[in-house]
Amino acid sequence: MASEHEGSIANILEQDTLKWVFVGGKGGVGKTTCSSIISIQLARVRSSVLIISTDPAHNLSDAFQQRFTKTPTLVNGFTNLFAMEVDPNVENDDLPNGEGMDSFVSELANAIPGIDEAMSFAEMLKLVQTMDYSVIVFDTAPTGHTLRLLQFPSTLEKGLGKLMSLKNKFGGLISQMSTLFGVGDEFGEEAILGKLEGMKDVIEQVNKQFKNPDLTTFICVCIPEFLSLYETERLVQELTKFEIDTHNIIINQVLFDEEGVESKLLKARMRMQQKYLDQFYMLYDDFNITKLPLLQEEVCGVQALKDFSHHFITPYQPAITKGTVEGVEKRIVILKQQLEEAEADLEKLKKGK
Ligand SMILES: Nc1ncnc2c1ncn2[C@@H]1O[C@H](COP(=O)(O)OP(=O)(O)OP(=O)(O)O)[C@@H](O)[C@H]1O
Ligand SMILES: [Mg+2]
To answer: What are the residue boundaries of the structural domains of the chain, listed by start?
Structure first.
């Protein structure tokens, strides 16, 4: 499976059953850049694509240089690519369909830690599901957070399941709860149960979908350094534990030596990177591994994203290959330039004295 698509995300574009694509990894490795490009690539082959950021630090707006909100907005220059930024920590009353649940949910939130975040995540998924996008890409928050969100359906399912069975055992429990939570008459036992049952349905459905490798996959983004390798391994293990499919790794910020000029620092960094690259290839030989070059500049705006997106499909080839006639010729040109610059600097300094 891997060899056929080695060095690209072509397998993701070809898997037309995919509905949920999660992109995650350590902070600052390039999750937003990669998820944005993956959504751009998917928009070429799918009828409609939605990219969602669940990172409270919201940086889709930076990457696309366009402001996004919690409602899907068409990305400039596209007809079928939409983006939205949601805050997993928002108050529930900010969410649609949550009316009347506020006090109940906030009380529940105190009782079961993390349930408020889970609820708003579930509400968001419910909302997104009704919107009928062909595929939904998630630009997730740094590792720990993502895993917590993915874990929520199971946590919540268990909690709600318990609540339901309690309700069956003790009929009056729910009405007691409504009094306790002060939700009053306008929000009776039936309504609460209805909401909870509805929520449970969504969560069960989503849980099933997330665990189905035909529908869901998780793309790990990392850089060739020890900490990132370590975090990726942790991430892959957790995903396996939650039965969430993962078979793509993107290694970003790889140094390719195309300066033509010797640099001790660059050489040392490249040696270090190579060590971890080798380990990535060894550990994940059944994964599709995509290597992306470290650019001189940031990847900002639709055009920059589009330009960079080629390396997601065709493995990157450095412009200069060392040890060839062209390589040496280029090196001489660069060295001559540098010599001229140094001579000009010297002239300036001498005149200044
Ligand atoms: N290969 C690359 N070469 C040069 N710059 C890059 C590359 N990949 C990403 N960047 C830049 O690095 C910065 C961080 O990238 P990005 O925002 O995608 O990371 P992130 O993992 O989403 O970060 P965070 O964890 O803060 O959300 C951005 O300014 C981006 O333009
Ligand atoms: Mg980001």
So the answer is: 9-319, 320-352
Q: What is the pTM of this model?
A: 0.81
> How far is the centre of ligand 2, averaged over its atoms, from the C-alpha of 30 (Å)?
7
Mutate to test the pocket of ligand 1, among 22, 33, 62 (most ligand atoms within 8 A of CB): 33
Select from 299, 300, 306, 307 the residue to mutate for testing ligand 1; criterion: most ligand atoms less than 8 Å from CB.
299
Residue ranges of the annotated binding site for ATP are 26-33, 225, 252
272 by DSSP, 3-state: which?
helix
* Residue range 9-319, CATH number: 3.40.50.300
Residue 90: pLDDT band (50, 70, 90) is low
Distance 30 CA to ligand 1 centre (A): 4
Any catalytic annotation for residue 55? yes
Lowest mean pLDDT among 49-63, 280-294, 337-351: 49-63
Q: Strand (E) positions, 63-183?
A: 73-74, 81-85, 135-139
Measured CA to CA in angstroms, residue 45 lies from 16, 41, 77, 207, 302 at distances of: 9, 7, 16, 26, 18
Q: How far apart are CA 289 and CA 2, in angstroms?
A: 8
**Ligand 1 site, CB within 6 A:** 27-33, 55, 57, 59, 142, 252-253, 292, 294-295, 298-300
Tell me what the mean pLDDT of segment 29-49 comes to. 96
Which of 299, 278, 298 lies closest to 289, judged by CA? 278
**pLDDT tens for residues 212-231?**
999 999 999 999 999 999 99
Q: Is there a contact between 29 and 63 (Cβ–Cβ < 8 Å)?
A: no
Q: For residues 248 and 238, give the distance between their C-alpha atoms in angstroms, rounded to a whole number.
A: 15
- Cα–Cα distance between 261 and 246 in angstroms, integer? 39
Instruction: Please state the atom number of ligand 1 nearest to the C-alpha of residue 142.
Output: 25
Reported as a single tens digit per residue, the pLDDT across 46-80 is 999 999 998 777 789 999 999 999 899 999 999 99
Token duo for residue 130: 């009704």
